[in-house]
Design a protein that fits this description.
- Helices cover about 15% and strands about 30% of the residues.
- The longest helix is centred in the middle third of the chain and has 13 residues.
Length: about 110
C-alpha cells in the first residue's frame, strides 16, 4: 500500500478495507516452497499499517508452510480459494494468535 504524504488521515474503518497480497512478500503457491516467513511478513505489514486483509493469489497448488502462521489483531486472512498446507508448529498448530513485539511478529503463548 502506498499513501500520498498529503493525504488526509484515514479512519480505522477505512484501513480495514486495505488489501495486501502474500505474493508481494514472496509467497509462492507451488506446494513445496516454505512460505512461512513471506506470509507472516505480509500479515505483519497489514497489522503495522493499522489493519486490513492479507490475501492469497491464485496458484495451481497449495501454499506450504513449515511453521505456524501468526495472526495478530486487526488482520483478516483471505485464502481466496487456495489451500494452505504444511507442518505447522511441531506438526500440529497451523495458525496461532500472534502479537507484535518490537516491530516483530511473535507467538502469543498466553493464548489457548
Amino acid at each position: 500500500m502506498v499513501e500520498r504524504a498529503d493525504a488526509p488521515p484515514r479512519s480505522i474503518q477505512a484501513k480495514s478495507l486495505d488489501i495486501y497480497s502474500v505474493n508481494d512478500k514472496g509467497a509462492v503457491g507451488d506446494g513445496k516452497t516454505d512460505n512461512t516467513d513471506a506470509i507472516n511478513a505480509a500479515i505483519l505489514e497489514v497489522h503495522s499499517s493499522g489493519g486490513g486483509e492479507s490475501v492469497f493469489g491464485a496458484s495451481t497448488s497449495s501454499y506450504y508452510v513449515k511453521g505456524p502462521v501468526l495472526i495478530p489483531s486487526n488482520v483478516a486472512i483471505n485464502l481466496n480459494g487456495q489451500t494452505l498446507s504444511g507442518d505447522g508448529l511441531r506438526g500440529g498448530t497451523m495458525f496461532a494468535t500472534g502479537v507484535v513485539r518490537g516491530g516483530r511478529l511473535a507467538r502469543n503463548k498466553g493464548a489457548s
